[in-house]
Amino acid sequence: MYDFNIAGNRLSGVIPWNMSKLTSMKRKNDGEQLFYNLPVTTKRQERYYGVRHSKMVTIVLSLNFLTGEIPEEIVSLGQLVNLNLSWNYLSGEIPHKIGSMQSLESLDLSRNKLSGEIPLSISNLTYLAWLDLSYNNLSGRLPPGSQLDTLYDNNPYMYKGNKGLCGSPLQRNCSGDNNATKLDNSDQERSAHVPGPMFFHLGLGSGFVVGVWVVLCTMLFKKTWRIAYFRLFDEVYDKLYVFVVVNCAKLARKTPQLIEKLG
Length: 263
Known about the structure:
The protein is of the alpha/beta class. It folds into two domains: 3-180, Leucine-rich repeat, LRR (right-handed beta-alpha superhelix) (Alpha-Beta Horseshoe), CATH 3.80.10.10; 194-262. 35% of the residues lie in helices and 16% in strands. It contains four helices and twelve strands; from the N terminus they run βββββββββββαβααα. It has helices at residues 146-154, 175-192, 196-221, 223-262, and strands spanning 3-5, 12-14, 38-42, 45-49, 58-60, 65-67, 82-84, 106-108, 115-116, 130-132, 137-141, 164-166. The strands form four sheets. The chain has a five-stranded parallel sheet, with no helix packed on it. The chain has a three-stranded parallel sheet with strand order 9-11-12, with no helix packed on it. It has a two-stranded parallel sheet with strand order 2-6. Strand 3 (38-42) and strand 4 (45-49) form a beta hairpin. The protein is rod-shaped and about 125 Å long. The model is unreliable at 31-40 and 48-54 (pLDDT under 50). It is found in: Membrane. InterPro entries: Leu-rich_rpt, LRR_dom_sf, RLP23-like. Keywords: Brassinosteroid signaling pathway, Glycoprotein, Leucine-rich repeat, Membrane, Repeat, Signal, Transmembrane, Transmembrane helix. Belongs to the RLP family. It is a single-pass type I membrane protein.
């Protein structure tokens, strides 16, 4: 089987795990040509593959009522080119090893209830030309990769409807980035709102400390300055001592007189 298309049949239930036993989708393409027109819905377009096209392997289960998880076994279909499971009620996570489906050119998982993070291995799908994961419940940081960025440029709605997704190229930063940004902004705001008097006192205190150290260091290494300093200190001390003694003597003489007048 090279084209498994049962889209729009109101099917319900889960995707059978033994779908991985579709051997023609696992075997390497041998180049055999198709001799009839084969309609295939891929990249939201219906295309017809005829005599000039090699075997096409595609699974289209869109527009049904399928539930449950995408079976992990589906990743063994290494020759699958188109996988369309959109417009169902699939839940759970995208298979972590989806990157092993190296032949995938179109992957449409939109309009489901898928949750969790987008597997990093999806960046390994080097032939991928169309990706649509819109309108699910996916969360976490987007996987890095230049090819995914190119796909986003071609289809900027491929992540739409997943409010939990973050990171480039979306305009939504992840929580760690927000915290770092908030911390930087708060530091800037605090530095911007430091009051002017605080700057004045900080400058005055630091200037006083620097000045004292300059004087002490100069006196320590220059003898003439040290002698001059102590001489100045002695003169100031003598004058202060004389001033205190004289004023105390005057006060002692005047005290009895004041007492007599008051008496």
